[in-house]
Amino acid sequence: xxxxxxxxxxxxxxxxxxxxxxxxxxxxxxxxxxxxxxxxxxxxxxxxxxxxxxxxxxxxxxxxxxxxxxxxxxxxxxxxxxxxxxxxxxxxxxxxxxxxxxxxxxxxxxxxxxxxxxxxxxxxxxxxxxxx
Length: 132
Description:
Elements: H1 7-32, E1 38-44, E2 49-56, H2 59-70, E3 76-82, E4 85-90, E5 95-100, H3 103-117, E6 124-130
Antiparallel strand pairs: 1-2, 1-3, 4-5, 4-6
């Protein structure tokens, strides 16, 4: 025959449950107020290799992951960003990597800046990432 929980266990559970419920919303608020999320773009133009990272708690972690994804020893972190988006565009002479509040803004700005750096020549969007 199975017995129910002892009275002391029931009283303890009755006390802790409201305490836990009251603690979790405060923790959720702290998480949304956490310091920024980081991302990075790594690139090696000659090999056309690139790597991205996003939603990292530390800038260093974002850089390391982007370099690992790029996959070549010659890759360099060409752009770092925080709490937003970034995009990489390439043209015939050089590339441009810029940030924006949204993906669309980052892509538009990267293509525009790349065109300017390449004397008005067309550029191609290579990669983008957002931290949210």
